[in-house]
Design a protein that fits this description.
By secondary structure, the chain is of the alpha+beta class. The chain has eleven helices and twelve strands. The protein has two domains: 230 residues, no CATH class; 109 residues, no CATH class. Helix content is 40%, strand content 13%. Strands 4, 5, 6, 9, 10, 11 and 12 form a seven-stranded antiparallel sheet that branches. Strands 1-2-3 form a three-stranded antiparallel sheet.
């Protein structure tokens, strides 16, 4: 359950308002130390429900301190140990988020997610979310963030890997035309004038789709994995042919397409309503709105914080319980996955704290 937004909260939330005003510059700071400074600054007067409940306050303050120490430690070690520290840092940050939230059952117990097939090839290691563990950290945070669980139907690490925007051009194992990565939305380009359609560029289509010969049916098949995007109204077409999308190719080979959605059954709506409608169909990640692909039979894509949670859990379990296999996966002399894993874990100590701040900003303050 989400708490009220900053815009609707009262004068008692002055500290949250100050954080909101500084939020954009902090999120885009070159230094993750600035992000931790912003998180530390919330501890003397915790946000949300942690402000008035002593038990929640105690958990918020202590868990956030532990999260910071664990992430700082993770930044100082190599790939062999980094997933252990980064995962437990995120786990403690999750406890702080839950303490600040409006969840009645806010105390987190256990992981609530399980990694199996640890001896498999790295992309084939699988992760299960445990629906029976409603008190588990993963389940509770997923409830808070409207992020789906997938029960006992395991999802391969390779598929979860592709859910992170940071991995869009760095697959663990390229699945070719079956690969789906987040598509970002240019919400700043929404028309100022009232109009029945929300019109925005959608960016991140794979190169194979951006070849000038793609037909509407192929685009529809591709977008079937994106619950928020698939019910579009129309798109900019090629040479007036309504069946040929007019993609614009970027330097990295990925493509952009102007797409249109009918917001309110043909009635004209203003820019604010168009923005609200589009953001209700997408998820925020580090200041950018994305259409995230769904996994399994879920009607929603994972929240990016929960995708990181599942991936870091899998990597930490490998490092902890299969140290020999883990060492072979991260050996740059022997493993094709090593550089991708190194890069992801370097990004983790920078990106995850920013997501924690963004999540607190959205759901707790």
């Amino acid at each position: 359950m989400r708490t009220k937004s900053l815009a609707t909260r009262g004068k008692g939330d002055r500290d949250g308002t100050r954080l909101a005003l500084r939020y954009s510059s902090i999120m885009h700071s070159d230094s993750v130390a600035t992000v931790w400074d912003a998180l530390r600054a919330t501890r003397w007067s915790p946000p949300g429900s942690a402000s008035s409940d002593q038990a929640r306050r105690g958990t918020y303050v202590s868990a956030l301190e532990q999260a910071e120490q664990l992430f700082r430690a993770a930044a100082g070690v190599g790939t062999a140990a980094r997933p252990l520290l980064a995962f437990y840092g995120l786990s403690q940050a999750g406890r702080a988020i839950s303490a600040a939230s409006s969840l009645l059952e806010w105390e987190l117990k256990g992981h609530g997610v399980k990694t199996i097939d640890l001896a498999a090839d790295l992309p084939s290691v699988r992760i299960k979310s445990d629906p029976a563990s409603s008190a588990g950290s993963f389940a509770r945070l997923s409830t808070l963030l409207d992020s789906p669980l997938w029960g006992n139907s395991p999802i391969a690490l390779n598929e979860l890997w592709d859910l992170l925007p940071e991995n869009d051009c760095v697959p663990l194992l390229d699945r070719g035309q079956n690969r789906r990565t987040p598509l970002w939305i240019g919400t700043d380009s929404l028309w100022i004038e009232s109009h029945p359609l929300a019109v925005v560029p959608v960016v991140g289509f794979p190169a194979w789709l951006v070849d000038g010969k793609t037909e509407k049916s192929t685009l529809d098949d591709y977008l079937a994995a994106y619950p928020g995007a698939r019910d579009y109204h129309s798109f900019r077409n090629l040479q007036g042919n309504p069946n040929l999308p007019a993609f614009t190719a970027h330097k990295d080979g990925r493509g952009e397409l102007q797409m249109n959605w009918l917001v309110r059954g043909g009635e004209s709506v203003d820019r604010v309503e168009s923005w609200e409608w589009l953001t209700s169909k997408s998820r925020l990640c580090l200041g950018t709105w994305y259409f995230f692909p769904a996994i399994g039979q879920n009607p929603l894509g994972l929240h990016p914080l929960m995708a990181w949670w599942a991936i870091l859990h899998a990597l930490s379990m490998l490092a902890r319980y299969q140290p020999g296999e883990w060492a072979s996966h991260i050996d740059v002399n022997r493993s094709s996955y090593a550089m991708s894993v190194e890069r992801l874990l370097r990004r983790a100590v920078d990106v995850v704290p920013r997501l924690v701040l963004e999540t607190l900003h959205q759901f707790a303050l």
